[in-house]
Amino acid sequence: MEQSYKRRNLLKNKLLKRIILSRNLQPIATLLAFAPFIFVAVTGIIGISSGAKNFSVVFTWILWSVLLALLLVPFLGRSWCFLCPIVWPGELIQRKLWKRFGSSKLMNLRWPKILQNVWLQIFIFIFFGIWMVALVTQPLVTAIAVIMLITGATVTFILFPRRSFCRYLCPPGLFIGLYSAYSPIEVRVKDRNICLTPTSEGGCEKECYSGSENGYGCPWFEFPQNMVSNIDCGLCTECFKTCPRDNIALNARPFGAELKSESMQRKPDEAWRALILLAFPLVYTAVLFGPWAWIKSWGDLLLYTNSVGMIQHFFYIILIIDIVLGIIPGLHLLASMGSKLLSGTKDISTKRLFVNYAYAYIPLGLMLWVGFNFSLLMIEWSYIPVVLSDPFGAGWNLLGTTHLPWMPIALPIPIAEVAFALSGVLLSLKVGYNSLIAIYPNRKQAVRALIPFAILTTAIAIVYVWFYI
Length: 469
Description:
The protein contains 21 helices and five strands. It is mainly alpha-helical.
């Protein structure tokens, strides 16, 4: 279970440790994040219908999502989950109203074992992804989506224990969780031997999982002594507060170090998560920035014109599903079959290659998401000061910026996109080669097995860059 990469415990800084151990840190951060999302719902319902002039669309899709993809996830992993306002009402009910955390007082249900994976989360993400055009153009749709997420989270918190919603349902969590595996921040135990010491011999009582008077048991159902991945750790900081042996560290580590670890278990549902999240930046880029205007018009499920109707909407949905669940996974399957054939060995199954190598797409997928959001910010940034001055589109001019013209910064986009895609390819091939070395006993076999994956990885990057140059 030990991970061999270099790391540095950031909590050696006494001020940072004091901040992390504060019981007020998370409630204050969550409350501050909750306010703008309530405002998103209000402005989306009663504000102007133009997305470019309404706070709900501009804040959610040009500011928050861009901040998430460009900074928070790549550099701080699941830091957003620490302050996520979506779960605040439900978590407040569990922690304060019922005064017991870890079980549901209403029905005492347990999350079904068959759904203890990310499959349901994947399909919810795809559902929201299909509505992407309407979400980024229609304030009311964005408001409804935010209300649905908050309501769904609250109901789930009432019915099921801890953060079942976050782990198994939350659509943003699908993206945040997977790519946090590449980030340079992790929560891990300092010395696992301390955790393994029996209680009778002076060991702890696993307060990090069950909770104590100092804090709550892990909301994410994670057992810190066994953690080897960031994917299901929400950085809630409760384990820092509850551990009686001060045995939890907040480590800085090299980017992608986790993906090189043999301790990280590769699972089929997570492999599909990686492939689907690799497909969506291609889809979003094609729809919003591609040369085919008809795709975007077909994608707005609320826009009915003389030339666009339900049949076009239906074909748009089929097209998205085909790419996300068919074409990209299908190409990866073909690459896995080709990899097995070129390796010259029958001992390694195609399924094992399919699952294990899918994790190698994490760096490329992350870079494509970064690139897409970078372009979105460069093109749409000038809408931010406009809506801050007039959030409802009601003719206000609070900051004097309401009439600021649209000012896209297009010049750096092609260069930046090539750089993002190229770095993603190189980093993915590095991770992929390391994963194949762990599978094949012979380096020559690993190199031959890498060839189909390298071709596919490069082809995906080329298709993506084509939309920008």
